[in-house]
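[Backbone geometry]
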Amino acid sequence: MDVSTRVLDLRRTIVYPDYVASKLDLAPQEPVWQIERLRMADGEAMTHEQIYLKQKILPELTAHEAQGSLYRLIEQTIPIGYANQELEAVVLEKGLSDLLETSPGQPAFLAHTVAYSMDGYPILYDNSHYRADKYTFHNILQREH
């Protein structure tokens, strides 16, 4: 399988939704990278990602770098310890269905993910839409004692 990533948008910004500021524990007007990507498998659109990454973690970021593994880049600065992910079923609206090469109204999975450092420092927030006809999620739920 040929896996690739297309960067649709990459910008440094101090304007972001309140929920992003809350999830990332951002100071007022703290700069973040806003990254929009399309993940592909064998040339077929599979996932649309809207990512917010604290700029102080990666002071410089190019579109070429953003095509690769963001976690690998981040871990050159700070180890990622864990992520908290919420998953919901949604239907795709026209803009996203066009990007994902499917019809409006088709089902999708929407994952809201916050990645944290080993000591619980929030690093990255991601909203990803996964085509429901192309993905199966498998989770291992471990109970802490």
Remarks:
- The CA atoms of residues 108 and 131 lie 5 Å apart.
- The two ends are 40 Å apart (CA to CA).
- The helical segments are 18-23, 63-66, 70-74, 94-99.
- The mean pLDDT is 95.
